[in-house]
């Protein structure tokens, strides 16, 4: 091979301020370690352990066989948007116009990015909860906005309280970004708590961006869609998708529903950055909406059984654990050990080969907790609890 010239001026690699300002995801960093340990039990990455139900996979296979391999409309296949319209009318009595108030996105991840880029001007502030899903602050920063973290507490069931939020509202506040049921805590906000946030948004003329990806994964409680509250359809960007409820993380299909002005702006960005979501993914999503309800019900029942086992198990080994009512995460306190959550997670992985995510990866208020994803098999959960019990016994302060 011919030797290449090395007189490259390294300034060509200067990284943009935006990229420099992002911290690497505390989850990914940690899980690179786990992949190198085949006998580790992972309570880590937050995704269903189920494979996408067969009838959904089959619909995508059929679409490929029929040669449906072209781009779709930038907004997404109209049949999918019509199914979504039906879904929202049935579930929450909200009527989103499939032609102007919906956009099919590459998961909630893209919806979140588009929502921020369509709405935020440099320096605009977006309120998020602390702890919160790792992508929220980054999405705000990438849009040149400023994330403002409002503490939430276990004593308050990790709900974002309107009274606390109001203290952080300034002239620059543009939106409140909420994600309930919550990753990482499993908390679900009640209708009254959401109504208080809705009142605040109306009082201060703010938008609400609501990530409802775990809406279908609730246990013994009802999820309230904030856009269904009086006056809120007009000031909500609702984000959701197929990843979690239908076990479709790899398909990358989500959607945004919002007032037409916002959807038009999001669609403009989407058409240049993504063009459209994969055609077979959208076909599979139509099948999921039409015929997937029973599979979702079965998976939810299964998660609920695992939830009871992990919460009881964590409490029994001496880690106090708030009862999660949604998503598939338990968020036990590890304060009895006196370790930071990062020390706890790293030492647990090194000594007992159990992977959990340090709560601090989700914000300052996550310190003192770890996130345990229970979307894994019961025998693995039980084995992980055994190993964690040994670990807590060894390190707990008397
Ligand atoms: C709260 C939350 N929102 C969004 C996402 C990403 O969703 P999607 O797969 O639809 O991009 C995740 C994934 O873990 C999540 O936990």
Give a verbal description of the structure.
- The protein is of the alpha/beta class and 398 residues long.
- The protein folds into 2 domains: 10-51 and 295-395, Aspartate Aminotransferase, domain 1 (Alpha-Beta Complex); 70-292, Type I PLP-dependent aspartate aminotransferase-like (Major domain) (Aspartate Aminotransferase, domain 2).
- 41% of the residues lie in helices and 12% in strands.
- It has 13 helices and 12 strands.
- The protein has helices spanning 17-21, 26-35, 54-65, 78-92, 107-119, 135-142, 162-167, 191-203, 260-273, 279-291, 293-316, 341-352, 378-395; strands spanning 41-42, 102-105, 125-130, 146-151, 173-178, 207-211, 236-241, 254-257, 329-330, 354-355, 357-358, 370-373.
- The strands form 3 sheets. The protein has a 7-stranded mixed sheet, sandwiched between helices.
- The radius of gyration is 22 Å and the shape is globular.
- The relative contact order is 0.17.
- The model has no long low-confidence stretch (mean pLDDT 95).
- Pyridoxal-5'-phosphate is lined by residues 46, 107-109, 133, 179, 183, 211, 213, 241, 243, 249, 254.
């Amino acid at each position: 091979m011919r030797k290449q010239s090395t007189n490259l001026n390294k300034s060509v690699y200067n990284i943009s301020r935006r990229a420099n300002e992002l911290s690497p995801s505390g989850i990914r960093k940690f899980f690179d370690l786990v992949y190198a340990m085949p006998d580790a039990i992972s309570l880590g990455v937050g995704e269903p352990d189920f494979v996408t139900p067969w009838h959904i996979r089959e619909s995508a296979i059929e679409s490929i066989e029929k040669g449906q391999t072209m781009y779709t409309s930038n907004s997404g296949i109209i049949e999918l948007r019509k199914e979504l319209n039906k879904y929202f009318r049935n579930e929450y009595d909200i009527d989103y116009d499939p032609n102007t108030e919906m956009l099919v996105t590459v998961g909630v991840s893209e919806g979140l990015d588009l929502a921020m880029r369509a709405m935020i001007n440099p320096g605009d502030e977006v309120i998020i909860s602390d702890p919160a899903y790792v992508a929220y602050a980054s999405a705000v920063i990438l849009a040149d906005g400023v994330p403002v973290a409002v503490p939430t507490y276990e004593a308050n069931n990790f709900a974002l309280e309107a009274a606390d939020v109001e203290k952080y509202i300034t002239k620059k506040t543009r939106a409140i970004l909420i994600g309930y049921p919550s990753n990482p805590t499993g908390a679900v906000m009640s209708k009254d708590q959401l109504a208080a946030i809705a009142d605040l948004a109306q009082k201060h003329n703010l938008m609400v961006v609501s990530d409802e990806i775990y809406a279908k994964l609730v246990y013994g409680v009802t999820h309230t869609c904030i856009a269904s509250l009086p006056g809120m359809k007009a000031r909500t960007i609702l984000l959701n998708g197929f990843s979690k409820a239908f076990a479709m993380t790899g398909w990358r299909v989500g959607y945004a529903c919002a007032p037409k002005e916002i959807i038009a702006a999001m669609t403009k960005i989407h058409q240049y950055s993504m063009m459209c979501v994969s055609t077979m993914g959208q076909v599979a999503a139509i099948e999921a909406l039409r015929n997937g309800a029973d599979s979702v019900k079965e998976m939810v029942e299964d998660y609920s059984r695992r939830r009871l086992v992990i919460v009881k198990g964590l409490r029994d080994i001496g880690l106090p654990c708030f009862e999660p009512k949604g998503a598939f995460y338990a968020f036990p306190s590890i304060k009895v050990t006196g370790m930071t959550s990062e020390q706890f997670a790293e030492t647990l992985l090194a000594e007992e080969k159990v992977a959990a995510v340090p709560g601090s990866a989700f914000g300052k208020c996550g310190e003192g907790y770890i996130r345990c994803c229970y979307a894994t098999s019961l025998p693995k959960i039980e084995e992980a609890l055994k190993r964690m019990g040994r670990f807590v016994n060894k390190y707990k302060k008397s």
